[in-house]
């Protein structure tokens, strides 16, 4: 299920380079015409900290295909070619989840013709803040940013961006105050409702595992992060309200950036708490590493019920092998594609921010085969 709603806001503001007064039906036709890019391997070079440019191939040829009288709206391939965007895929280049978001960004850039520059942040809040400043220095028309650092860190930066005439839209972790403040100017949100998603997963895992009050559940999450931690909070609340005892472990930055680095942590927690019957990893990369963790801890597929977040090739393999029992899919490809479309719609047509809840369905051994091919392409 994907929910879309308009963002509310307290005050409107001027937009840079916005054409207004165009029919909604024209935009619907343009959105319907968008198709995924044929290739998803056109990734930028670098070590994950540097930005790389991604241009639409047909930008010059299709930059301004107006109506017959020359005064109509831009239409056809490359209708957003006059717009420059800085986009944040989240983690390290080529890693699970980040790769899906990146592929969504690239597909939108290809379809719409936008000039997109990418910043890979290794899921480091400090790096996201620093790269936000670096992106502003490029003076793009818009920025698609992860909300992980929270309002205290990101709010003033977003204020500064709008003072410079740069539109900002939010990905993966909400920034509610900024979204409310700048919604009319194009600040939207694409991602899951994190607390609700966490709680839903915990409740589903309890039911499927037939857990009982007093059972132990291991939650490996990110409670320390202001906004992102809401999903972990939802998992913990869901288990505790069902009467389970929660063993909690914070994901350290080394594991946050490189999931296999957390293998000793997992084996240590499981050895110290042999009565754990459910495990939830609140991180796509960690969920994708379920089989590695289980094998390292000398656990068989049926020894614990393992659940987590996000679909990718490794998590498909883990489900099919029996080491991963359940995950909730938040469709990260859409978290890349739709923010680029959001910025293009605002810059070209003057539309306000959209709120898109991408949290989809539960994936398990009964339905994973239906989307395996797309998952292997880092689209689903």
From TrEMBL:
Subcellular location: Cell envelope
GO molecular function ontology, one term from the record: carbohydrate binding
Keyword Transmembrane helix: no
Region of interest (Disordered), residue spans: 36-79
Keyword Signal: yes
Keywords attached to this entry: Signal
Biased composition (Acidic residues): 38-71
Domain named Periplasmic binding protein: residues: 92-340
Any single Gene Ontology cellular-component annotation: cell envelope
First and last residue of the signal peptide: none
Family according to the record: Belongs to the bacterial solute-binding protein 2 family.
Official protein name in the record: Periplasmic binding protein domain-containing protein
Species assigned in the record: Phytoactinopolyspora halophila
UniProt lineage: Bacteria, Bacillati, Actinomycetota, Actinomycetes, Jiangellales
């Amino acid at each position: 299920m994907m929910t879309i709603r308009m963002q509310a806001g307290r005050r409107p503001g001027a937009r840079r380079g916005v054409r207004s007064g165009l029919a909604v039906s024209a935009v619907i036709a343009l959105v319907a015409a968008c198709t995924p890019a044929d290739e998803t391997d056109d990734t930028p070079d670098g070590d994950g900290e540097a930005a790389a440019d991604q241009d639409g191939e047909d930008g010059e040829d299709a930059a301004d295909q107006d109506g017959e009288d020359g005064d109509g709206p831009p239409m056809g391939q490359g209708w957003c070619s006059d717009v420059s965007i800085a986009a944040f895929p989240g983690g390290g280049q080529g890693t699970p989840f980040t790769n899906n978001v990146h592929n969504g960004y690239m597909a939108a850039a290809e379809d719409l013709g936008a000039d997109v520059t990418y910043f890979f942040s290794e899921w480091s809040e400090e790096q996201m803040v620093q790269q936000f400043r670096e992106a502003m220095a490029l003076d793009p028309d818009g920025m698609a940013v992860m909300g992980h650092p929270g309002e205290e860190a990101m709010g003033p930066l977003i204020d500064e961006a709008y003072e410079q005439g740069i539109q900002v839209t939010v990905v993966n972790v909400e920034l509610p105050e900024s979204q409310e403040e700048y919604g009319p100017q194009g600040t939207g949100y694409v991602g899951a409702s994190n607390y609700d998603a966490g709680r839903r997963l915990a409740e589903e895992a309890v039911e499927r595992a037939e857990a009982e009050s007093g059972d132990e559940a291991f939650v490996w999450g990110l409670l320390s992060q202001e906004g992102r931690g809401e999903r972990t909070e939802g998992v913990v609340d869901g288990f505790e309200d069902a009467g389970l005892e929660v063993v909690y472990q914070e994901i350290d930055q080394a594991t946050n950036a490189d999931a296999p680095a957390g293998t000793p942590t997992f084996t240590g927690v499981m050895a110290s708490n042999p009565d754990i019957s459910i495990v939830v990893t609140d991180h796509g990369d960690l969920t994708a590493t379920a089989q590695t963790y289980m094998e390292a801890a000398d656990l068989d597929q049926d020894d614990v019920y393992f659940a987590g977040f996000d679909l990718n090739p490794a998590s498909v393999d883990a489900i099919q092998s029996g080491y991963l029992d359940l995950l909730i899919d938040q469709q990260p490809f859409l978290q890349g594609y739709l923010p680029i479309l959001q910025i293009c719609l605002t810059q070209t047509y003057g539309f306000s921010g959209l709120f898109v809840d991408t949290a989809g369905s539960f994936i398990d051994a009964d339905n994973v085969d239906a989307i395996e091919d797309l998952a292997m392409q880092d689209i689903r």
